[in-house]
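Many groups now describe folds with learned vocabularies. In that spirit, our science desk offers one protein's residues alongside their backbone shape tokens.
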Amino acid sequence: MIKKRRTNKNIKLRLYFFISIFAIVSFLSLGMYQKFKIDLIMRDIHRLEQNKKQLLSETELLRSEVDILRNIDRISQIAKTELHMVNNNDPVVVLKVTNFEEFENAKTKVARKEEATKKLKMAGVQ
């Protein structure tokens, strides 16, 4: 019976020993796994920060290009040189119509004046 107790104690001691070793190995493995995951996350953070810096610099470059392209003087220059557009310096005519008859008369006067101007241009007078 004493032998049985000793063997039971030995078995219990061995069992506790293996459980302790297993727990220690498990905790060490979990710690190493956490460090590995943290290292991967830190690499991702560093890569994303670099990517963010690059995108911010590209954004600034594009904004400056937009400002240059949006410049009204540049647009006017392109309109003149490439599209052959000119500034309209004709006087502005405002017609105030009180009745339709006056409007028709004014329309015919303007049309006659334009016809006369065309004839003079064709003749080389103007």
Remarks:
- The mean pLDDT is 87.
- The radius of gyration is 46 Å.
